[in-house]
Write a structure and sequence with these properties.
mainly alpha
């Protein structure tokens, strides 16, 4: 239990510390790909420090909900760091606490719901428009997210994210027969494509949203943040960085679960050397994902709001086909 507590706290601290750097790296990479100099890599840290020293401004029409929302949003994304394996997988033979995948879904959905309430509570036209768009985006994304989680549980026979990653890790390292390999490749490819579109929608990235826009009428979640200032805005900015880091990590570990530190036995000395390398390699994996995301956003533009449903429909289609393929194969194997 001590080992589990140590790795959990260590992963959470790394997750919080590296999140602003990841956001700064993304902005810098996008600017360089567009032929611009771009902001400094550590600019998000400077912005957070500056905002934390300022007092918030609360609208006269707002209630206590407006002030509570930044705390709720930040708490949800920090909680994701406590329950998610980022670069360490425990020994499956040990009785580790397991976190259900639906808990992760709730922790992802609650911040969007809270931001929608804050936008309506502020009472301004722009924040009301942002709240409506935020809820609309969630309405399009949640069915695909639930179906993708269901496909993962059907494939791995577990509702734990740690169990899903351990299953994929063993499957990739031990090898499969040709038929099982083809089935696993098809299912994982469908889940990955659905998860990729869901990550873009949840993180508010292109083509669903453009977080770098300065046009109020084109904003989604950022329109709500226009009413925030001071340390309230700092909490929301940190939450945005944590959200992006978590989602990229989820996508990365689903593809390469073997590239994580792993405990073969409790307090195994032989694990120390390889695990140190995997932990040190973790930031470079995330930075590679950031470069790929920067390339994606450099060659894509934000679509009109009524066209967003086309992308979310593809995510729903991929997840539904993955579920049908898994159920069909289970019926064949049972007969």
């Amino acid at each position: 239990m001590f080992t589990f507590a140590f790795w959990t706290l260590f992963q959470m601290l790394v997750y919080i510390a590296i999140a602003p750097l990841l956001l700064g790296r993304l902005r810098w990479a996008k600017a360089r790909l567009q032929g611009q100099q771009g902001p400094p890599l550590f600019q998000p840290y400077y912005d957070l420090w500056k905002l934390m020293q300022r007092q918030p401004i609360i609208p006269d029409t707002a209630s206590w909900v407006f002030s509570a929302v930044p705390i709720i949003v930040l708490a949800c994304y920090i909680s994701l760091g406590l329950v998610t394996p980022f670069f360490f997988l425990p020994n499956p033979n040990q009785n580790w606490p397991r976190i259900d995948l639906l808990v992760l879904v709730y922790l992802l959905v609650v911040p969007h719901f809270a931001l929608g309430l804050a936008g309506m509570d502020a009472g301004t036209p722009i924040t009301g428009l942002g709240s409506a768009r935020e809820m609309f985006m969630q309405l399009l994304t949640e069915p695909a997210l639930i179906l993708t989680v269901y496909a993962m549980t059907l494939t791995t026979n577990t509702t734990s994210l740690t169990g899903v990653l351990l299953f994929n890790r063993d499957k990739q390292l031990k090898g499969l027969s040709d038929s099982d390999l083809q089935q696993a490749f098809l299912v994982n490819s469908l889940i990955f494509m659905a998860l990729f579109l869901i990550v873009l929608a949840e993180a508010g990235r292109l083509p669903f949203d453009n977080p770098g826009t300065h046009l109020e009428l084109t904003m989604v979640g950022k329109a709500i943040e226009l009413e925030y200032a001071g340390y309230h805005l700092a909490m929301l900015d940190l939450a945005e960085a944590l959200r992006l880091t978590f989602l990229l990590n989820l996508l990365l570990n689903f593809i390469f679960p073997f590239a994580m530190a792993f405990e073969t036995a409790p307090y195994a000395v032989e694990d120390l050397g390889p695990n140190v390398w995997w932990v040190l390699f973790y930031p470079f994996k995330l930075f590679l994902m950031v470069l790929l995301l920067a390339g994606w956003e450099s060659f894509n533009s934000r679509v009109r709001l009524r066209m967003v449903s086309n992308y979310s429909s593809w995510a729903l289609f991929f997840s539904l086909v993955a579920v049908l393929v898994i159920v069909f194969n289970l019926r064949i194997s049972s007969n």
